[in-house]
Write the structure tokens for this entry.
Amino acid sequence: MIGLSVVVPCFNEEACLPELHRRLSAAAQSAAGQDYELVFINDGSRDRSWDVMRQIAAADDHVVAINLSRNHGHQLALTAGLDLCRGAKILIIDADLQDPPELLPAMLETMHDQDADVVYGVRRSRAGETAFKRATAHGFYRLLSRATEIEIPVDTGDFRLMSRRALEALLAMPEQSRFIRGMVAWIGFRQVPLPYDRDQRFAGHTKYPLGKMVRFAFDALTGFSSAPLKLASHAGLALSLGSLLMIGYIAYAWISGQNIQGWTSLMLVVVVLGAVQMFVLALMGEYIGRLYNEVKGRPLYIVQEIAGGEPAAGKLGYVAEATAKSESPGGSGTRPITRRSSAKIRSKA
Ligand code: UDP
Ligand code: MG
């Protein structure tokens, strides 16, 4: 086993990679000497990220570069890296250097001093992010902590240091829709915060546009809370009570002979009921969609090729066997993969 793994999901980060490699290597060396690996996951980037990664992996033995078959999304790319890394301690960090790698020694020290299994970064400030992003993130983390039964720390990202046993617990969770910071909170053990100031992106722009942020927030909510479902049943209950009152009123109006008037109120009731029903249906649909996704039991990620090392045998994804064909003529540093990691993990034979 390697002392330290640093796991970095990358999507269109070609401009960040060289600087990231430089700063991560320096931080890892100061913390772990030569006993470390840097695991870069290329999440189907459309720029030259993979080429850059391969070059870095060819030049540095500490680097393992993993190429996913397409864009799987941040949380699944991260899952692939976690599943395939070999370290006794694992640092998760973004590729854009918003989270300073130089915090690593402090994190290791905290982990050691406080005998913790997880040291997670808490954002004291967030530089270079729009007021909109800060406000929505602020609101989201508070809403989440109200809605969920477990305590998910507010203002944390995935930037954290974990012990092997905490990681193994995390990898024992096979779900498809992953909200990793919540899942880590769920596993328990001793988890300690470490406040830090979040920098600006080193280069490029955010890979979380509004649509993805909303999806991410929904995954978190539906994955960790049945509060939206309760909302649906509460709305249903309130409406049923309301309709009982309405029935009483309608009966009264009929008896007293004033049953013709009231188009406005009739329309109002139809429209409100229709809207609430649609809303509730949509909420149900979210959970059913989630169920459907889980039931299929597909591997969480597909690895197309790996450069620079032989990673651990993952259990959550599928690693394609390298064929002579897929090896490009100048593909130095890419090693054939002879292992096939099975996707049958979830049948827990
Ligand atoms: N990322 C990824 N796949 C995606 C989107 C993002 O691997 O589909 C990576 C991205 O390269 C970065 C990390 O996830 O390393 C966080 O993304 P970003 O910095 O854009 O998010 P923000 O910090 O703006 O919330
Ligand atoms: Mg970022």
